[in-house]
Amino acid sequence: MTSLVIDIGNTLTKIAVFKDYDLLEVQQYQQPGEDEINALLGKYAIEKAIASSVKPMAEPWQAALQQKLEVIKFDSCVVTGINNHYKTPKTLGPDRLAAVTGAHHLYPQTGNIVIGGGTTITYDYVDAGGNYFGGSISPGLKMRYKALNHYTGGLPLIEADSNFEDSTGHNTASAIISGVQNGIKYELTGFINEYIKTQKAYNIILHGGDGIFFDTLLKNSIFAPYIKNEPYLVLKGLNAAIQKHND
After folding, report:
1. What is the reported pLDDT for 246?
2. 20 an active-site residue?
């Protein structure tokens, strides 16, 4: 089945086309319109669509799309293969649920620590049996830099530096970089250590716009052999849900 998969995030909207489980094309937009959607519909023989959104209001182009083909709204009712033990499933972000679904679909024989780097940093865990109990949410990389600038009177707005390796800042700019980036590194390793206390086999799956950056932070750690980069994990999770829903 050829599916149109839509992930509406806080900053970007990602739209992908899958043939069964093969990713054919992916595009991302700050704000897509009907023209972009129609171009994909004209290029592929799309049979169904699935949409996930972290925003409470529907985008204008969504109504037009629903007039052309069936669009399944992604939520906990659509997912199969995941035993969702989250106490308030209706408040669980669909991007987190989709990422967990994608992780368990791609790596079903082991536990998966799923770390998403975007507007926020999310930490979730799904075991080999597909059991999911919840996770954690903290401020994202850019949010931390912006917060230091916004909530202080004298700290400048600094850009992330993927080549920064010194643990100590020797001026204001490098002190901010050290605090933010080393803070995230220690946060990452702290959460991972907590998850693996009871797990003998696991993957660390990084996804989202800052996933590669997090890989850089962890490259010299003991966790490096277990890291898997899946930048399209949420899209793959959404596609797995609609493919299994169609069976």
Report:
1. 67
2. no
